[in-house]
Amino acid sequence: MCLAIAYTVLDEAMTFKAELEAAFPDMEVAYVDTLSLSVACHSGPGALGAASLIRYSK
Asked: Residue 20 gets which letter from DSSP?
């Protein structure tokens, strides 16, 4: 498993990433990317999202 972050403000996302890494030291934060415009326009500045993902190997 790994973690992913979606954000509207990069500085806040990087702080959140550090918090997640401290809380879940055995899980990689594999993705940090912007929220889509269709979500960001409704959530506004400072929105953060986190997800856990399962990686399947081939």
From this structure: H
Please give the Cα distance from 41 to 37 (Å, whole number): 6
Measured CA angle at 7 (ends 53, 18), to 5 deg: 70
27 Rama class: left (phi>0) / alpha (psi -120 to 50) / beta: beta
Mean pLDDT per 10-residue segment, the chain (58 residues): 95 96 95 91 89 86
Sheet of 48-53, strand order: 28-34, 2-7, 48-53
Contact indicator for 21, 29 with CB cutoff of 8 Å: yes
Residue 43: CB partners within 8 Å, gap ≥ 6?
A: 8, 35
